Structure formats: structure tokens, C-alpha cells
Amino acid sequence: MIGGLTFLKDWIIRSEVSDAIGRLILRDPKTNNEEEIIFSDEKVIVPSISLMQKDKNTNLVYLSYSSPKTPGRTYLYNLKTKDRKLVKEQEIPSGHNSDDYIVERLECPSHDGRMVPLTITRHKKTKIDGSANLLLYGYGSYGNSMSPGFSSTRFSLIDRDIIWVTTHIRGGMERGMKWWKEGKLLNKKNTFEDYISVGKYLIEKKYTSRGKIIGMGGSAGGLLMGAVTNQYPELFLGIIMAVPFVDSLSTNLDHSLPLTVGEFDEFGNAKENKEHFEYIYSYAPYNNIKKMDYPNILITTSLSDNRVLFDEPAKFTAKLRDYKTDNNLLLLKTEMNAGHGGKSGRDGAIEEIAIDYAFILKITKKS
Questions:
Q1: What sign for the dihedral angle of Cα 199, 225, 121, 209?
Q2: pLDDT, tens digit, 9 for 90 and up, residues 149-169
Q3: Which one of the listed residues 19, 96, 156, 340 is annotated catalytic?
């Protein structure tokens, strides 16, 4: 996917994403020669560019990047000489050493042979022998790509030998528009199959074991969590669903809701198309709850959420309580003063992450 273009007097700089990795391409318009701008030794990064002045007659630009293990860094970069100077670096007040962590980019085959990229972040001391817990994060809808950028909050888990894996499954655009089209409408189940394939692949490669994975996703990622939990509950120790789109058939049938009609191109129109109805019914999490053992589950919702109404996770939780045959945790947390994005205020997001992580630490028996 080609992103923005920056035009200077002697250069054109193009940003693009290929296989879920961002790149900056430098072009000389006089010769049409192109080369990738390499200003970091890391392979999995999120690069960006900004001009240091409005005058386009310059060779100097600001290049920035972050990675799953490295906070944001900004360099003053000379496009002609390739000299660079570090001018700014994000500081982590609690301390952070990037060298303590390993980032890997792997690919695994899905059910139909498509190769799904995944980004792994782990502590260098974590053993790859199947003993580690693993958090498997996924989304896979609306063409939204999962960026492999830096997040300081993840390291409280990673430092406790919990491997963090971000899946770049179909439904996003990490591999272009086709990647999105192969994960929506009557191809939606590819999103779920990709995620399950990644989980099984990580077990096979000894990053974790069956029953040690914590699945995590929000909104349409909550739809993903509900679908895969109904299909393969034995893979998971726990599931975290944030504002989850779990009663997707009922919502699709109600055209009075604010988002339903606008999402026909993503999920279909079950009210007017029998094939769409039957397809959505076959995977909608609420409609596919079974009498069986489920993993530990934390579901969060908000009373004022106008994208995924609070009744969806409430209905899902009630039916799950009625059907599940285990004694594992099933928690529903409803924020009374929040919307789809969670609580407002400087500390709101931190409090919500703390609840998710407390759930993870409880079920993994870590402290």
C-alpha cells in the first residue's frame, strides 16, 4: 500500500507498507533511480518523515521510527550524504532497555495456503520450549492494519515471560486491498481461520502450548474473539473481549442502528439477502454458543457506546453463563460513563489496561 508522498526540489520520498512493514523509498526524479532509506538496524519498524522547513530546496529531513521493542526515535537525516543525527528519543520514565527484548517477524500458512504475517515480541530470557504463556492480539476488519509500533504498557506482561504476538490477519490491509477483500463479506471466516492458524503454528513452533494462549481483541476484534472461542476453546487459557461485536446478526438485521447500513459492504445485508443471513448466522458469536467448556473470559463494555450497544456483550454473557459447562471465570465489566473508546481522562486508559492485565496475571498465576 502506497501512503504519502513528500516532494522536495531534488527528491521524492514515498511511504509504503509491504507485508505489514513500513518503508520509506527515496526517488531521484532526474534519473528515476529509487532506493529504500535505511536508518535503523531493526527489520520490523514503523517509519515516518517530516520536513524541517517549508523550503523544498533542501537535503535535510526528519526521519522517525519506533518498533515493538524501541520507543520513538527521530533523526536529522541528509538524503544526499546519508548522514544521520539522533535529535529526539521517547523517554520511558520507568526505564527501558531495548536490548532486553527480541522482535521476530514470521509467516504461517492459513487454511487455504495464504501466508499470514505475525509480529512476535518477547523477553530474551523467555524460553521457547512450550512453557510460556502467549497473548495473541487480533483485529482483522474494515481494512485496518495492525501497526507493529511501540507500546510501553506491553512490557509489564513481556517481562513476566508472556510473549506478545500481533497477528496481521485478513480483513486488514497489511498486504494491500486484496487482504481486506479476502476477509470481509462472504470471505469473513478467513479472518477467523487466519487467527486460529497462527495460534496452532505458535504451538507447533514451541512459543506456547495448547491452553496457554490469551486471546485479545476489541470491537470487531471482539467478534473475532467470540468466533474463535466458539470454534476452538481448547486453544485458550483466557479471552479478553473489549466492547465486542458479538451479536452481529441481530445488529445487522436492525437497520435503525447508526452503523448497520454503512457496514453492508463489510459484513453484508442479512435482512435482504438470504445468503448473507445464513453466512453471518454461521459465525455470529451469540448464535453459536455451545454447551461445552470455555476458557476464562473477561468482557468489557460501556453504557454509552453507540457503535457496539451494551446489550450485545450483556446478551452474550448471559447466554454463555447458561450454556458453558466449566467453572472458569466469566466476567462482564460495564463502564457507566464511557463510550466505544473507553473512559476519558488522562488516567482512564491506564485503568482499563490495568484491569485487563490483572485478569491475565490472575489466570496465568503470575504476580
A1: negative
A2: 999 999 999 999 999 999 999
A3: 340
pLDDT recorded at residue 310:
79
- φ and ψ at residue 342, rounded to 5 degrees: 95, -165
Residue 51 has pLDDT above 90, yes or no: no
- In the residue annotation, 305 being an active-site residue is answered as yes
C-alpha span between 86 and 97 (Å, rounded): 17
The pLDDT score that the predictor gives to residue 53 is 75
By three-state DSSP, how is residue 91 classified? Answer: coil
Query: What digits encode the pLDDT tens for the residues 269-283?
Result: 999 999 999 999 999
Listing DSSP states for 84-137 in one string gives EEEEEE---TT---GGGEEEEEEEEE-TTSPEEEEEEEEETTS--SS-SEEEEE
**Mean pLDDT across the stretch 98-105?**
98
Mean pLDDT value of segment 15-38: 94
Question: 240-257 pLDDT, tens per residue?
Answer: 999 999 999 999 999 998
Contact call for residues 1 and 25 (beta carbons, < 8 A): no
- Residue holding cell 528519543? 89
What SS3 state is found at 102?
strand
Q: What are phi and psi of 119, to 5 degrees?
A: -110, 120
All three cell numbers of 312 = 450485545
From the candidates 194, 247, 305, 356, give the one annotated as an active-site residue. Answer: 305
CA atoms of 302 and 242, how far apart (whole Å): 9
Catalytic one among 67, 219, 250, 302?
219
CA distance 240 to 217: 7
Pick from 123, 22, 132, 107: nearest CA to 69: 123
Between 15 and 302, residue with greater pLDDT:
15
Question: How far is the C-alpha of 288 from the C-alpha of 178, rounded, in Å?
Answer: 28
